[in-house]
Amino acid sequence: MTAWLSFLVVFLCSWSLRDLVVEACTCVPIHPQDAFCNSDIVIRAKVVGKKLMKDGPFGTMRYTVKQMKMYRGFQIMPHVQYIYTEASESLCGVKLEVNKYQYLITGRVYEGKVYTGLCNWYEKWDRLTLSQRKGLNHRYHLGCGCKIRPCYYLPCFATSKNECIWTDMLSNFGHLGYQAKHYACIQRVEGYCSWYRGWAPPDKTIINATDP
Question: Is 207 inside a domain boundary?
Fold first, then answer.
């Protein structure tokens, strides 16, 4: 009986610790445009290999990628061969599949290596909306001087001319919302920012936005 109780205590303790670790990765919702503007590297790539590196308590996963296109980061690293992430999802590590999909991957560069995680924007390429793809090509960078302010409960008001109010959190979460899927916050004349949705590249000289 004593041995059984000891086993039960150890089991429950390890189960509780595992629960705490699994819930350790918490990310603040971020609009794709902010994810783009705040990243050192933004690429479209296919994962062609992976290797578990023996560093850190849980190790680091190194993904070998075939870069299809770079959207941001030319001056820092014009060609990306490896993407690094924590091996454990509880530490915000990303799980990418090998030789299956093309991914949009955003990340930061540390000591010459590109790192990404669950709090970065990554997605299977075929799941991106047309507006998000156009944003990557020429819209998001026009709004890197703007501020996208999340609205969690009404009323919400812009406090400066360079703010766009992001209301997806009222009914959705993160990248899944309508504004995140279809709108970019574009900087226009005199620093004025507003939401933009359209098929042609936006004209920065006029204010001609469609409100979400």
Answer: no
